[in-house]
Amino acid sequence: MAALVETDFDVTIKVIVVGNGQVGKTSMITRFAKGVFTNEYKKTLAVDFLEKKLFVPAVSEEITYLLWDTAGQEEYDSITRGYYKGAGAAIIAFSTTDRASFDAVRQWHQKVKDECGEIPMVLVQNKVDLINNATMTASEAEDVARSLRLKLYRMCVKENMNIQQVFEDVGAEFVNRGGESGLGINSVTKMENYTTGTGGSQRAAPSNQDPNAPGSQQDKAFKVGGASSGATTRGPSSQRTGGKKRLFTQCAIL
Fold first, then answer.
1. DSSP structural state of residue 156
2. How far apart are CA 177 and CA 173, in angstroms?
3. Which residues pair with 161 in a beta bridge?
4. CA pair distance 47, 70, nearest whole angstrom
5. Is 251 part of any domain?
6. pLDDT tens digits, residue range 189-234?
7. How many Cα atoms occupy the beta-carbon half-sphere of 68 within 13 Å?
8. Nearest to 127 by CA among 203, 20, 46, 45
9. What's the CA gap between 39 and 52, in Å, rounded?
C-alpha cells in the first residue's frame, strides 16, 4: 500500500487595485510591496506589476501577492481590461478628497464582477489624513460599502495606516474560499507580454492594434464618470460636504 505524502503548495494570488486616477493606487501597492512612499503623482500607463510575499496569520499561510495596478484613466481601459483575467481578489479605492472617485465606486465594483466574477473584494477610502477636506461624509462611505456587501477600510498610505491589513484581508478570504480552485479561476503565476520598467516594476507592452479601427477594443472601452476617451484628464473634484467631519484613526470594517 502506497504511503500518503503530504505536500505543501505555494499560495499565489493575483490582486488588482482599481479606481479612478489619482486616488493613490500606485502609492498603495508600492508602500505594501517595497515599504516606500512617494507623493509625486505619475500617471500609470496601462498596468504596473509588483510582487510581495507575506505570512498571513489568520490562515497560517505565506502568500505570494502578484499586485496589478490598473490604470484608472478611461482612455487606457482597452489595454487594461484583459488583465482582469485570473484575478483572485480586488481592492476598490477612492480618495477622501475626490468626490468623482467615490461616485464611481459602484461602476468599478460592477466592472470587477463582470470581468472576474464573485472574487474577494474590499473597499478602501484613501487619504483619510485629509478628512477636513472630505468630499463625502462618513455615513455615505459606510452606506455604499454596506450596500455592496464590502468591508470598508479607512487608509492613509502616507502614514502607512491599514495597508497591510487590507492585503491580509483579501489574502485570507482568498484562502478561505479555497484559493484558485474554490473560485474557479485559472492560475496566474507570471506576467506575459510585459517589458521591464523602472524601479523593479513591469509595464504592459503597447498593443499594435489601431485604436481607431472599426470594432477595435478602444471602441468598446469601459467608461468611468461618463468622460470620453478623447477628453482631457481632470484632477480630483473639489466638491465639499458641509457639517462636522469625523476623524478616523483606525479602520472601520462594516
1. B
2. 6
3. 156
4. 5
5. no
6. 454 443 333 334 444 444 344 434 444 433 333 334 333 334 444 4
7. 26
8. 20
9. 21
CB 208: neighbour CB atoms within 10 A? 5
Nearest to residue 165, comparing CAs of 67, 54, 72?
Answer: 54
| CA-wise closest residue to 123 among 102, 101, 153 | 153
* DSSP-derived 3-state class of residue 100: helix
Q: Tell me the whole-structure pTM to 2 decimals.
A: 0.70
Query: Which residue from 177, 164, 135 is spatially nearest to 20, judged by alpha carbons?
Result: 135
Q: Could you tell me the three cell numbers for 36?
A: 516606500
**How many domains, the chain?**
1
All three cell numbers of 124: 478602501
Residue 130 inside a domain? The answer is yes
Angle value at C-alpha 18, between 194 and 111, nearest 5 degrees: 100
Inform me whether the pLDDT recorded for 168 exceeds 80: yes
Q: Domain for residue 125, yes or no?
A: yes
205 lies in a domain?
A: no
- Find residue 50's DSSP bridge partners: 67
Q: The C-alpha cell of 212 is what?
A: 481607431
pLDDT in tens, 97-139: 999 999 999 999 999 999 999 999 999 999 999 999 999 999 9
Q: Are 69 and 17 spatial neighbours (Cβ–Cβ below 8 Å)? A: yes
Report the DSSP pairing between strands 202-204 and 47-56. Answer: antiparallel
CATH number at residue 46: 3.40.50.300
Q: Which residues fall within 8 angstroms of residue 26, CB to CB, at 6 or more apart? A: 42, 44, 48, 69
* Assigned C-alpha cell, 139: 455615513
Domain holding 97, by residue range, is 11-188
